[in-house]
Hints:
Helix content is 79%, strand content 0%. The protein is mostly helical and 394 residues long. Helix 1 packs parallel to helix 7, helix 4 runs antiparallel to helix 17 and helix 5 packs antiparallel against helix 6. Belongs to the major facilitator superfamily.
Amino acid sequence: xxxxxxxxxxxxxxxxxxxxxxxxxxxxxxxxxxxxxxxLIFVFACLASPGxxxxxxxxxxxxxxxxFGKVIVIASSCMMVACCLExxxxxxxxxxxxxxxxxxxxxLQHAQANGFVASxxxxxxxxxxxLHAAYGAGALTAPLVATRFAQMDRxxxxxxxxxxxxxxxxxxxxxxxGLKSQDECLAQIGQAPQEQGTSQRSKFRQIFGxxxxxxxxxxxxxxxxVEVTIGGWIVTYIINVRGGGPSAGYVSAGFFxxxxxxxxALLWVNKMVGERRVLFIYAIGAIGLEFIVWFxxxxxxxxxAKGSLVGMLLGPIYPIVMNQSSKILPxxxxxxxxxxxxxxxxxxxxxxxxxxxxxxxxxxxxxxxPLLVAMMSFMTGLWWLVPTxxxxxx
Length: 394
């Protein structure tokens, strides 16, 4: 029941991330804005107060004081407030403010959900894969709905659907976790409390003293940035560069559908090859497919390669990062560390899409592919630097 409720939370997260792409051309038309200005949607979700970065720091401040149950309900409530703002289609500054409020909710929810599942003692890898497959399911569903709303006069009413999901998520979290601490919730399923460290330093200083935390956080930032850039800008790319029509939004659904399938169907490959090694295979395969999209001008080919195969290869990477974190980092710092890795990583969902928008305004959206190839290559290099051995002693 606990895992199912957290999966629904990640379904909502995936829904939110995949909503923007199909609506982006309509938002540009409604507000009469260019690539750079519309990209502020991504920036404010991350950098504006509160946003993802603020949410990642806030997670440290309130997790120990309020506990898991209260924090994750606060996160879902922030997302409800954001949907109310966005559904009204207010002037663009207020519309962007909704993305900022949503940013803090997403950061807190990612931190709490990933930290909780990583703390499971049994079958943590499989459960992490299921958790993020639920994210893929939400991201698959959202473009199917958003593409229809993008063609309607009341396009912003899509956010009322998002509001309904957020309300349901909040109710489920209250019922299942009862605003209790993480240890209390784990005790309900027969798992002993997490071990405690002996250091006299604060958890904040201990976590930030770990080199692996920073490497994993920056890796996650690039990965999330690549994922959201593809989901957010592929529709505009297909329409402007490949001549796609109003139904191009379904390509985004295909990408996130591949993401969902990859996180479940490739679990056996992860076990057989080893998570650390297989990540290199997935990344190099995705880079190869991006070269095909870059140099082979075909609407159907691009939709197939980008819409499903790239998503399938990128899909397992996020759960692998979380699973490897639980093996590398001290268990008494695991929840806080993963909270920072997940929260900081979400900043990539603002930085790379904004860079894409800025470049598109200068040189055209056709430069999406070289940017993605560069970012994926950089991400692969960062993974090589992540330590392989346990750092429990630190």
